[in-house]
Amino acid sequence: xxxxxxxxxxxxxxxxxxxxxxxxxxxxxxxxxxxxxxxxxxxxxxxxxxxxxxxxxxxxxxxxxxxxxxxxxxxxxxxxxxxxxxxxxxxxxxxxxxxxxxxxxxxxxxxxxxxxxxxxxxxxxxxxxxxxxxxxxxxxxxxxxxxxxxxxxxxxxxxxxxxxxxxxxxxxxxxxxxxxxxxxxxxxxxxxxxxxxxxxxxxxxxxxxxxxxxxxxxxxxxxxxxxxxxxxxxxxxxxxxxxxxxxxxxxxxxxxxxxxxxxxxxxxxxxxxxxxxxxxxxxxxxxxxxxxxxxxxxxxxxxxxxxxxxxxxxxxxxxxxxxxxxxxxxxxxxxxxxxxxxxxxxxxxxxxxxxxxxxxxxxxxxxxxxxxxxxxxxxxxxxxxxxxxxxxxxxxxxxxxxxxxxxxxx
Length: 410
Known about the structure:
The protein is α+β, with helices and mostly antiparallel strands. The protein has helices at 16-26, 46-53, 77-80, 90-99, 104-108, 111-125, 133-138, 140-150, 157-168, 177-198, 204-213, 235-266, 268-276, 281-292, 324-328, 362-379, and strands at residues 5-6, 29-33, 39-43, 58-59, 130-132, 302-303, 307-309, 312-314, 320-322, 384-385, 407-409.
């Protein structure tokens, strides 16, 4: 075990993969200072991360955390009762209720609507010119898809993007901004649920409300009061689930589309191969998420008892951070792991998790990325990066890996 390392000052924000390379070799389970200044343990090797992701002794429930450790987002109960904070049996119950909406077969039915949205956004760009591809394409595509799926009115979508950006990458100069975003989101979801109860529609949120209300609940009870039934949601669970689907459905996909496009533009040989054979796109998505996925870290975990990871004993209740990004660049699992190679067999990557907490929206994220790139390859044959790659600005976040902007010409 090494001494504590401050992940912010030691370069993780600016050069994450270089930091992870060093830690994998010298201290694969390392005591660090977490994103909020609290202590945590960072795990970086593929085998250790994969095993830990599926270890039932590593809990997501913050009630098992020791005081003073890193716990992640500070959310009110009405937004915090979500799958990212739950262990079985509550996790199993809620995932079963919503999982049917995200099966590969159900998601495939969204292919045509997603392509229409992509074409509409590209139509707005015109035949030639320059743009920020994040603002003009990578961001509005997934927010449109997930809001349509849930049934969120058009007028609120820009606000939600702004709130999400504040939470994922808090601005140290505006310490109140995150709290204000949480308050705004709480009000937004409260009103949205009320509106859907008055006027249900053919959307996922209306379906979840029906499951909730038809279970015999009144709509006024809070978390935990009606968990006995196998097909029930408390009111806090319902609101938290809506928040999680919207938040994760937007956040992960916008970052993935952006980094995938950047990887292709920086590797013209790979881009040319994909243009020559677009049928390779589904397999290519696996390399995109392995090489530069949207999440640097998995959701923090708390040992229910002392656990040993790579010969290091982590005491019960302390915070464990599992680096998905470091695991996916581990040369022990992926030879020449820092090389972007669409011919690689990238299956087995951990970018979308592993075990019972594997990303619920993975089929949707894969499909959106595939369609977004297919439309770009077809519609913008002369797409190029505008400027020096070294000038690109990345989101200042230890949680999410994403570009603030991606200037291109076409």
